[in-house]
Give the backbone structure.
Amino acid sequence: MITGKLYNGLKFLALVAFPALGTLYFAIAGIWGLPAAEQVIGTIVAVDTFLGVILQISSTNYNSSTAQGTLAIYETDEGKTFNLELAGDPEYVLEGKDRVVFKVQKTTGEPAARQRRSEKA
């Protein structure tokens, strides 16, 4: 699995640098009559496609090893309440995972659990 700076660097190459380089060589080769335009551009596209496949495999592996949830921030007159919410029982959702990624969701009002407690009281 490729992560961090290496992943970001390779992604930049695949999405920006190689397509730009191929386009640049294609344009300049036509203007100046540079040699082997088809071979150079074909090689750049082949390397870029291979890199894209490697990055997609890495991204799929990363996502499958990551539990996901929501960090809900409830703002009330009394202050803020933070709830970590997973889609299911934490024992099963987190089992075998290396990391957890939470989406931050800001809202107003009481969390559902607190509302139920205050309704029972």
The CA atoms of residues 113 and 119 lie 10 Å apart. The beta strands are 66-76, 79-86, 99-108. The mean pLDDT is 87. The chain has two domains: 4-64, 67-120.
